[in-house]
Amino acid sequence: MDSLQKNILSALNSIFSHRQISDNDKHILATIEHETEKFDEATRQKFASELLQRALPPDNPVPLYFFLYDCLKDIRLLERGLDFLPARLSLSLFYEVYWNISQRVFTSTVGSAKIHRYLRAQFDDIRQDLNGFLAENGLGQFSPCGRVPKTIAIISPQLLNMRHSPTREAFSLALHLKRYHGCQVYIFNTNAMHYEGNNSLKLVSFSKYHANLELKGAQTTRIDYLDFHEEVNIISFEPGLMTTQKIAGILDTAAKLKVEAVIAHGENLLVMEALYKKLPSLFATTGVVVPFHHCDAYFVPGDLVNEHTLSQARQYQHTGEIMYEGMLVTPEGKAEQPLKREEFGLNETQWLYLVVGTRLSAELTPGFINVIEQTLEAQPDAVVIFAGTPQLSVDKIFSDHLLSAKRLLNIGFHQDLAGVSAMCDVYLNPHRNGGGTSGQTAIINDLPIVTLNYGHVSTLIPNALRAQDWEDYFRQICLHRSPEHYAQVLRQTLSYFAQNSNARAQVERMYNRLCKIALTYSR
């Protein structure tokens, strides 16, 4: 342990040995987090191992180990933090724990069986208690129609705006069901991910999921998306901690609206569990392959289903049919024209690579960083543009000579991603989950994609075009500089996308499956 690490340990021992963490202490912790960002992977892992061997203050162990994970990104630290959580969580505390952990591990490439077992055991205990309470008190009673459903609720844990890809997915589902299947559709915005002002865990860095506070109660909103210019019904429930009362209110609203079937859009946890087997249900999203909650069928990206996910589905007792599909198709749109390069200090002779994501600070892995630097060294006319993460500090990640030559540019969160995509030449995908809709936006704006055979973006292109490792990734980048190869890859990509990523056909298959499920329900 070097002198810096000893100083960090001394500060941690002092700060976390009090009853609570002061504002001044939080400034010190911010400095510690900033310093640990400079550690390489080997240093982080070694320091984490040393900390796990030491006796640390027992006053605030959950905030301490969550903070250490945020600094060092070693899953063992998060696992240690679980040891200090209650053996049984309340319903509201379960949501707080689940989403705080979920946000942290989403960008991690290292899984944790211990974390999954803990969360699943809590979920199973609470769902049994919840469903028992609802049943004993006559709450959430439905009379399934036993026919083709025409009134459908899309249950979503979070609705923001049309720049937010999960929100765009929910609206797209509603618009397609309304136009092509004549359905009366309600999007239930449960605000299950938002609990501003509540930090029962006393975490230093609390996962702050946003809420669209303009969405209140029942309202009708006009949506202009692609060729849709129609109104959508939204039922928004108050942001805040999830409670039995709130879940009962959601069920009561569904009953009053005479909802005949539900689509669980995303991980809806106990809300969806309370609706399971009461109404025909289908799970559909691109962010999660195996949800905690149960449904009658699961519409998931087939390329992301493997033996591990199937084993997990069996463990969770998901007996409903798995529909092996593609990602939900919700690109941001086709640009009317590319943005002008001079707006960004660029010129027409430069070759532009585009990297998009709202979590790029966590997604730029050492392998991806090395490929970018290797590419820029090999191609003097190349520039890499990062979009979507304003706080990304490229000056702390890449070589000084590349920065001084302005070979790397972070444009932050741009309102016209389609225009940015059309301005660039190639879309580069990090080793990550997520990023699917920015990949779709790139494709419909005629950008080829370079990606490893991993994650959501990889499902958008043919298997033959997916790089097997970073060496193959760099090879493909270089091949794209050939006009003939570039044109061939783009043709293959567009053809594959057109065949496998048709939103109308996807929603039709979902609705047909819901109809078959509904006919199995009797009054």
Automatic annotation (TrEMBL):
<protein>
    <recommendedName>
        <fullName>Glycosyltransferase</fullName>
    </recommendedName>
</protein>
